[in-house]
């Protein structure tokens, strides 16, 4: 296929959201988002990679066409919009087959990328660590396998630009497919090593068992802002879809002194490409290992109900079922500062009367103290009082005690031993007994004397 003549400006984009089926509830019974919300999200995705959206529209599709998805009338309308706005790129917020993508490019004489391609493009720009880069590249290659005929020559893009906005070329297709498959196998091996390394890290953390709290939620729900608010970390937090991609883990102290590990994961999105779910499984396994999952929701978004359904669906795909989730998931209703005063007050009252729910503003800090108290309550369980005497040969346990218990009182003895009064969970009390061995343990009555 000869290379298409390029339009004047590939950074000027037309965004369309094809609507195949109507209704607020899909076949599975889950809440679906409004057509306008879908379009707004697609525009946000386009702007996340610095594209100028010059025209956007919801496009009803009564009968999808195998070759182009859209009917001839709609194709002509979009072509008119491209001409009128000097745009050289069309973003279709719907999966396209390779044939549909190629045919639409011919009809519009413009570059065309679908929803999956756009999300992969964003992930490619956001990945900053070696692991993130490997995961994104693997997802790119698996996606491109079916589109090799139009986009790859010796695994190099022929058009200018990054990601899928690079161009069609096709020579020595069989050789290219072999090279592509070899590269996929190599990346899978490297990611398997990443997975094993993560397992080793988790095993080490279990030996010094700090509870893990994982933040999950729809993209742009405010996870990174909340993460920074709680931990004081400097994770990128912007009003942008997929502002952060690579997972971040930080230690933090709960109000009563207990140390936990907080994990900020990649944001979820509706119709998340299967290539990405597979590639990022090593990262998402951190969620599976979490003792507590904070589901952060943007309550200022009128579409937050559908977004929550998407997040829960992905968690279920990862293996966190509804019954398990009820015990491990705490809903965090974020961005209450973006609501009008009356709506905000009503939401705060509703959260107070709803189990497993806390209303917060990660930006202003409102409600964060209540959230920390609830995390502490969930993870601490029933605390038991212990009075412990650490002889000189057991003083190395002091840092462990400060990390895993609430130290109420400490007294350094003349013989070099240390007496401490602590509160800790039954599990950690058993671990302390194991570490003490023959170490002296005395009841609180003796301590008080």
Automatic annotation (TrEMBL):
Record: residues binding Mg(2+): 224, 244
Q: Which Pfam families match?
A: GTP-bdg_M (PF16360), GTP-bdg_N (PF13167), HflX_C (PF19275), MMR_HSR1 (PF01926)
Binding-site residues, GTP: 217-224, 242-246, 264-267, 334-337, 361-363
Which stretch is the leader sequence? none
GO cellular-component terms in the record?
Answer: cytoplasm
Asked if Secreted is a keyword of the record, the answer is no
What keywords are assigned to this protein?
Coiled coil, Cytoplasm, GTP-binding, Magnesium, Metal-binding, Nucleotide-binding
Q: Which residues form a coiled coil?
A: 170-204
Instruction: Say if the entry is tagged with keyword Nucleotide-binding.
Output: yes
Q: Which GO terms describe its molecular function?
A: GTP binding; GTPase activity; metal ion binding; ribosome binding
Q: What is its cofactor?
A: Mg(2+)
Q: Which Gene3D superfamilies match?
A: 6.10.250.2860, GTPase HflX, N-terminal domain, P-loop containing nucleotide triphosphate hydrolases
- Cell location: Cytoplasm
Q: Tell me, in a sentence or two, what this protein's role is.
A: GTPase that associates with the 50S ribosomal subunit and may have a role during protein synthesis or ribosome biogenesis.
Family membership noted in the UniProt record:
Belongs to the TRAFAC class OBG-HflX-like GTPase superfamily. HflX GTPase family.
Oligomer status and interactors: Monomer. Associates with the 50S ribosomal subunit.
Kindly give the HAMAP family that the UniProt entry links to this protein: GTPase_HflX
Instruction: Name the chain's protein.
Output: GTPase HflX
Q: What is the lineage of its organism?
A: Bacteria, Pseudomonadati, Pseudomonadota, Alphaproteobacteria, Hyphomicrobiales
